[in-house]
Amino acid sequence: MKVKYFAWVRERIGKAEETIEPPASVRTVDDLIAWLARRGETYAHAFETPRVIRAAIDHAHVKPDATIAGAREIAFFPPMTGG
Amino acid sequence: MTATREAQMTAAVTIRIQEADFDIAQEIAALTKGRTDIGAVVTFSGICRDSEGDEPIAALTLEHYPEMAEAEIARHVETAMSRWPLTGLTVVHRVGRITPGENIVLVLTASKHRQAAFQAAEFLMDYLKASAPFWKREEKPAGTSWVDAHDRDDAAAARWTKS
Question: Is domain A2-77 given the CATH code 3.40.50.150 in the classification?
Fold first, then answer.
């Protein structure tokens, strides 16, 4: 699946998007955040406070306990500050 | 009910995300051109300030998630149309670098009567702030930093789900 990062999540990780293949044990958005956080220092920094991270699956907001099965694109970003 | 459905069918909806500035008068003219059924147009425009608290701001840079931003705005526009008898709706949101005094966002709501237009404009702005995927970065004397989200923006959006 494709993963996209925005704002300071993108800056901390150092890339805007990538393709990942998490193991089957990674079932929810929360699981994926924990799995990504273990990929290295930059990821650990980006995801150090999971409760502030927002997620979207296929362009719609989802809660941390949402299942990622079948997702084509998952995005992680800080709380929004537009408008 | 029938009146609401007719209003929706004839409502002109424009949603744009762009780097370029917009002209508010032109946007209103485009929304109302050739229409004699519109009795009220409410305009909200968000403008870049030159300070945050005591700190001067040289510019804002807006980042966004293009596909999701359009989808998210469209979802809220649809909700507004089903909730109020609107005859037209325009949302324009800028991205990129914006300096103080420049426009950031525009919401126009048109209706037969003012109440629906006022409420729908406020509803849309509250949801744009809380859930449209845009992020502001400020240029201050000490450097650039991402703007922190305010709990009050979430609270403002949440109040529309109570009634």
Answer: no
